[in-house]
Amino acid sequence: MKRNHWQQEIARLDPETDYEQIARIAGQHEFPWDSQQALSFALFRTYAVPSIGRLLFDTGEFTGAVQKRHDDTALLLETIADQGLETSVGRAGVRRMNQMHGSYDISNDDMRYVLCTFVVTPGRWINRYGWRAVTEKEKIAAVRYYQRLGRLMGIKDVPDDYEGFSQLMDDYERETFVFDTKSRAVADSTLDLFVGFYPRPLRPLMRRFSIALLDDHLREAFRYPAPSRLMSRLAHGSLVARGRVLRFFPARRKPSYIRDTHRVRSYPGGFMIEKLRHVPRVDADRRRDFVTCISL
User: Fold this and answer.
1) Cα–Cα distance measured from residue 180 to residue 295, given in angstroms and rounded to the nearest whole number
2) Are 236 and 212 in contact (CB under 8 A)?
3) The pTM of the whole model exceeds 0.85
4) Contact, 293 vs 93, CB < 8 A?
5) The pLDDT of residue 289
6) What percent of the chain has pLDDT over 70?
């Protein structure tokens, strides 16, 4: 297949109505590895918001069961995107997320910020490291997809366009990013998971490599040491070089899934989306607050 095969397919689609199909093409065919890395870093940056980092620490899932928590999140998001927001399987995944979120006291501002990271971080990553830049149609499709997901999750005051998502994310980080010991513990545990995907001799290098990829204000919020100029050039330069090499590869015929990689290890025998992630017992009043979203 020619390298521009999927670009031609996207050109025939309308991002206002075909946003799920465009999102699948971008995430499963055009930029599967980049999308997976970007979403991992998107979630990682949310820990620097103290209200988010503290909650994740207090649940114990990100320090005591980080592999399963990573797997559950990845499988939920991937299954919803792959099957579609309006399908029975997609809705089951959304209900599961709502059940989990409804078990905790999470502000709308925090929920909306996390949604913004899913829209903005992949686009910025791909524009910097991908084999081509994100197109305007792909931007619109990402916005429409996460607007719909946000509505199904009961998130209020979601931005209207990509610029709105980007501005809200940047503003929220300027207002909230600050060092917190619990947030740092969650970040350390997740970073240990990331580097654990590589052979043991490479893990110290990959830890420095990963920290070098963090935005300065994010790295400073965790009080990670500043990377050396050499490490910064190596980290960013190697990813830029990878993208340039991929320009000469043919288009991907089959979709790529994170569930088929070595990064997902918790369910060797398969999984049921209705059983992913632990849902604590909560009081009836809080459960009723989320019943509308859960019943969608």
Assistant:
1) 36
2) yes
3) yes
4) no
5) 46
6) 93
